[in-house]
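// run 5 | inverse folding | seed 20
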């Protein structure tokens, strides 16, 4: 038995010499994702009706309109327009950069007339794997090699889940927000934990800035996340030792706030009317027994209470949601402040809507969208089960009430708040920054929860709560890795003066 254990140790030492924990995680997740996205049966997400804006603004089109499966099946090929697009929609997003690169690669290696969405999946994957490497590098800095592999397995199990990576084979903007948020998370951890070299720290700050711009520039829904990002930025002041550096950081944070505000005002939101309608029909009116009375309280024609529970795209609602009548007498007379005022006067209904949100947060990928191509083997809306164990466990075991997550946020901020106190007392820079980093992520998690209800009711909840699911997982990964590395409130094994490298293992 002793000889067997010694052989196992030697094999592990040999393995760890060539395959470090970051490389192990990259290879493992890379292989799993390639199987999911590129090897038959090819998986992706079906179209819920929102693809049109993305396709049209990128000179792509549905090349089989009569047989297009929409939500039932995933479709991997689309047409590429050969002439100037005179009907281009006003859709502005960082996502267009990834799609443009994918189209260029598609034309170079495949076809100039047919776009295969797997090229977009490949582009996302190329950007995804370095973020995983950087994250593991930061999480495992200064930790024993055995614990490092455990942390790598934790990240593989959570962030390599197919419920996240399947978005790469789709035109949903969640793929970009996932990548941007992952880079923000990874760069912050590597900044305060993984390196003491000045050049690398500057590099991480640049990466953090670029990733933040990417996240905010994904869509209107992400604009509000600038609040949490600014809080993360406030934590960086402890690292700024000169007046010039503090001034520059202040300028950057104010620039982010100002630019986001201007973007909110001047960049059109193609889904504004749709979201506003859903915030009323599937939000304000959904949890009240008398929607007509609720509307009359807000000086709206009570007859529009008949629209309760209807969708913007329904063909048989009492009044067409897309009609000029609805726009004039309902949508134009309401808005964000009208909805906020309603929920302030009816907090119990708002609480009920938040709890309704919790029913869908664990799924990550919408269960009403098919994941397979249309063949004889698969049913409409059939879901992929390949490497989705983590999210299935979440859906089966975790509480489905908003108060649980509010408590989760309070507890995790409280835990790291003790670290902040010790950091101030000991003048420990990284512990102070870590708290603001955690606080920023926690506030953005809370904002995603609240705004999902306020802005769109219970419509497309899984997509709207995508980042909330991801932020919960990020905070869970960080807490578990800190517990495993015994550095929740201290960092005796790894600090800014002593970084253990993998080359020594």
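// decoded
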């Amino acid at each position: 038995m002793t000889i067997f254990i010694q052989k196992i140790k030697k094999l592990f030492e040999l393995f760890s010499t060539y395959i470090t924990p970051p490389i192990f995680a990259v290879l493992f997740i890379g292989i799993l994702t390639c199987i999911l996205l590129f090897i038959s049966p090819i998986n992706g997400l079906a179209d819920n009706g929102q693809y049109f804006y993305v396709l049209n603004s990128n000179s792509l089109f549905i090349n089989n309109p009569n047989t297009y499966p929409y939500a039932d099946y995933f479709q991997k090929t689309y047409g590429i327009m050969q002439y100037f697009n005179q009907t281009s929609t006003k859709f502005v997003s960082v996502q267009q950069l990834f799609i443009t690169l994918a189209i260029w690669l598609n034309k170079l290696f495949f076809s100039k007339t047919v776009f295969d969405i797997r090229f977009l999946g490949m582009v996302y994957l190329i950007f995804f794997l370095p973020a995983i490497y950087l994250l593991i590098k930061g999480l495992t800095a200064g930790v024993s090699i055995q614990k490092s592999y455990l942390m790598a397995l934790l990240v593989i199990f959570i962030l390599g889940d197919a419920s996240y990576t399947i978005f790469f084979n789709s035109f949903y903007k969640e793929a970009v927000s996932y990548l941007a948020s992952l880079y923000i998370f990874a760069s912050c951890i590597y900044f305060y934990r993984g390196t003491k070299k000045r050049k690398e720290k500057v590099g991480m700050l640049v990466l953090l800035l670029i990733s933040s711009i990417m996240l905010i520039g994904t869509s209107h829904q992400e604009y509000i996340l600038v609040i949490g990002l600014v809080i993360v930025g406030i934590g960086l002041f402890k690292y700024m030792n000169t007046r010039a550096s503090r001034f520059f950081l202040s300028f950057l944070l104010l620039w982010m706030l100002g630019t986001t505000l201007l973007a909110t005002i001047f960049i059109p939101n193609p889904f504004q009317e749709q979201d506003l309608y859903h915030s009323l029909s599937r939000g304000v009116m959904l949890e009240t027994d008398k929607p007509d009375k609720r509307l009359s309280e807000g000086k709206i024609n009570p007859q529009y209470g008949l629209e309760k529970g209807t969708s913007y795209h329904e063909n048989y609602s009492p009044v067409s949601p897309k009609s000029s009548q609805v726009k004039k007498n309902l949508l134009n007379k309401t808005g964000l402040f009208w909805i906020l005022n309603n929920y302030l006067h009816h907090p119990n209904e708002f609480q009920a809507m938040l709890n309704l949100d919790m029913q869908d947060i664990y799924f990550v990928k919408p269960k009403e969208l098919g994941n397979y191509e249309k063949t004889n083997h698969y049913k409409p809306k059939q879901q992929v089960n390949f490497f989705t164990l983590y999210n299935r466990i979440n859906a089966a075991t975790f509480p489905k009430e908003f108060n649980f997550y509010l408590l989760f946020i309070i507890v995790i901020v409280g835990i790291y708040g003790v670290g902040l106190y010790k950091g101030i007392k000991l003048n420990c820079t990284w512990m102070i920054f870590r708290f603001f980093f955690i606080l920023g992520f926690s506030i953005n998690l809370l904002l995603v929860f609240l705004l999902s209800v306020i802005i769109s009711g219970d419509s497309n909840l899984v997509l709207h709560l995508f980042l909330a699911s991801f932020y919960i997982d990020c905070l869970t990964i960080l807490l578990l890795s800190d517990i495993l590395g015994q550095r929740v409130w201290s960092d005796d094994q790894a600090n800014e003066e002593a970084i253990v490298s993998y080359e020594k293992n």
